[in-house]
Specification:
This protein is mainly beta. The protein has strands spanning 11-13, 16-21, 24-30, 42-51, 54-62, 67-74, 85-87, 104-108, 111-119, 127-135, 143-145, 160-166, 172-178, 185-191, 202-205, 215-218, 224-229, 235-239, 248-252, 269-272, 278-284, 291-297, 308-309, 315-323, 326-333, 340-345, 356-357, 364-373, 376-384, 391-397, 403-405. The chain has a domain at 34-207: Neuraminidase (6 Propeller), CATH 2.120.10.
């Protein structure tokens, strides 16, 4: 195992988290704390969820007086959207926001659940217990939901870095990080009634990286899989064969041997591909292999093939999706002149097309997310021009290599 020559400088200046990894400066997402400065207003978080042929979009909007979650739905692959609906239970009740720890949305038909971190003055990052809101009518109205974590609120600091997915039978799967055992670990809860109640929490891994986002996805045979950054700092995979009651770590996804004393604030992407295949994106800061990689498993995530690099060494935050027999990966570029790029594979991730830029103009884009719905893939991201407010954008990714930003 190599010990990377990495020094992480977690400097919070003007709401930015700035890190240096292997000589590469990483400018992380802004944190919204209390009264947000003008440069941090607007669409300060974003999540999307493919709900059958529908796309559920959850954005946190901040006008300088505080943040509130806003929901929109598309029934035509993201070409048009329902009128925005504010989720009132979130108003004034969210911890500081970051694109690294977006509030999440999950749904089964017209039953939707939004999940976020509630504020806590006792927590290092001001993120306390989890909080939820539910809609039973496709997002037209929202009511407060129960707390998924079953430890005492605020006693273990932040509960954050959330992700959620619904199984084919409607069982909701939720993962997050908290420090109930004295160190940051990966926890899980399931809801059998679409967010009305949550089962007892289960620890997936008692010690993990402190602040990288987690990704949960349904594998084959409706098996939940979780991709997360472990200790040391390579990505790991865990699976449950009994609907989330027990979990086991089945291996490393990209064994780069990266070891640092710090957190890179970068998670991964995970999707089900062709029959029996699971695909992942991972990023490493290991000195000799710095960059973004894709990996393929042909046994439902038990073992993984060798990583394949995608994009340049500036490729950074990424996501992956599968539709119509094709794989799509999108990422942002680290550096002063950022961009959103994407690539496509028609052979299960063995090879990838040259990168195509989808973002346009002078805006600095960040943290793309992919969603497959109706047999198509769409990419979403947030961006801002200089010190302006953050806005969200999206584009349909076409097999022809063309993309259409909106």
């Amino acid at each position: 195992m190599s010990v990377s020559r990495v020094r992480l400088h977690n400097v919070r200046m003007l709401g930015l988290s700035v890190h240096s990894v292997a000589g590469v400066v990483l400018i992380l997402s802004p944190f919204v704390v209390g009264q947000a400065p003008a440069a941090m207003r607007g669409s300060v978080s974003l999540d999307v969820y493919g709900n059958g042929d529908r796309i559920e979009l959850l954005v946190a909007e901040d006008d300088g007086r505080g943040s509130i979650l806003v929901h929109r739905r598309s029934i035509d692959g993201g070409e048009s959207w329902s009128a925005p609906v504010t989720i009132e239970p979130s108003r004034g009740r969210m911890a500081p926001l970051s694109r690294n720890m977006d509030p999440q949305i999950v749904g089964v038909g017209d039953d939707l659940v939004a999940i976020w971190s509630a504020p806590s003055a006792a927590s290092k990052w001001s993120a306390g217990s989890l909080a939820t809101a539910r809609s039973r009518d496709g997002g037209r109205t929202w009511t407060p939901g129960p707390r998924p974590n079953d430890d005492t609120p605020n006693e273990n600091g932040e509960h954050a870095f959330i992700d959620a997915v619904a199984a084919a039978d409607g069982l909701l799967h939720l993962v997050w990080l908290d420090a109930r055992a004295g160190q940051q670990g990966l926890r899980f809860a399931a809801s059998p009634d679409r967010g009305a109640t949550w089962r007892s929490n289960v620890t997936i891994d008692a010690e993990t990286c402190e602040c990288c986002w987690n990704t949960i996805a349904m594998g084959w045979d409706d098996t939940p899989l979780v991709l997360y950054r472990d200790v040391p700092r390579d990505m790991a995979i865990a699976r449950s064969d009994d609907r989330g009651r027990t979990w086991r770590r089945t291996g490393t996804v990209g064994a780069f041997g990266w070891e640092i004393q710090g957190c890179p604030d970068v998670g991964g992407g995970l999707t089900r591909g062709a029959a029996g295949e699971i695909l992942a994106t991972v990023w490493t800061g290991e000195d000799s292999r710095l960059g973004l990689y894709t990996l393929r498993s042909t046994d439902n995530g038990r073992t993984w093939e060798a990583p394949r690099r995608v994009g340049s060494d500036r490729a950074w935050h990424a996501d992956i999706a599968y539709a119509g027999g094709e794989l799509f990966v999108a990422w942002d570029l680290n550096g002063a002149a950022g961009a959103i790029e994407w690539s496509r594979s028609i052979d299960g991730g063995r090879s990838w097309t040259p990168a195509v830029r989808v973002s346009t103009g002078p805006a600095r884009p960040s943290h793309p997310k992919l969603v497959a719905a109706g047999g198509r893939v769409r990419v979403f991201w947030t961006e801002r021009v200089r010190a302006g407010a953050w806005t969200w954008r999206s584009a349909h990714l076409s097999a022809s290599g063309r993309s259409s930003p909106r």
